[in-house]
Amino acid sequence: GKPVSPEQFKKISSETLTEDTLTVIYSGLFSLLRRAIRLPLTSLKPEMFKEDMNELQIPAEFQEDIASVVFGARRPRIENEILDSRPRLPKLDQLKWRVDVAISTSVLNRVLEPTILMEMKLSNGKIHSFEVPVSQFHQLRYNVAYVLKEMEDLEKKSILKIQD
């Protein structure tokens, strides 16, 4: 979970392990652990994982330590750290809308034509306001209702139900 500083690399490197060699080892180990932790424990078996490490020519003295990270008590904490540190888009916290009818405007064809003013408040605190024609608002309503109906239909299918 914590980044490795260049000073730590220099401290570990010696005459037999150069900084470049250590960088290759670190990046390979990081890639191996990242891919192993992405897999659910039901599909990744310890025996298969050890066979894979043998194929990668990882010395046997390190295999037990690596396997303990993937299958041991630290795994839930690592998974939680991965979930907490991943990049995300802000979520919609609030959506307000109102109908607006312009009585006087510089554009003559928009006089007395209703529009929908929408205001979105996001989880990062930003507020976005925009104007939508009534026809586009109805299209948005229809598409949201359609997606909700499709989700409901999917939930009714027996393949997605949890079996006891």
TrEMBL record:
> One GO CC term of this entry?
nucleus
Q: Name one Pfam family in it.
A: COMM_domain
InterPro entries annotated for this entry?
COMM, COMMD5
Taxonomic superkingdom:
Eukaryota
The segment(s) forming the COMM domain are 91-155
What CDD domains does its record include? Commd5_HCaRG (cd04753)
- The family this protein is said to belong to: Belongs to the COMM domain-containing protein 5 family.
Please report the name of this protein according to its UniProt entry.
COMM domain-containing protein 5
**Organism (species):** Magallana gigas
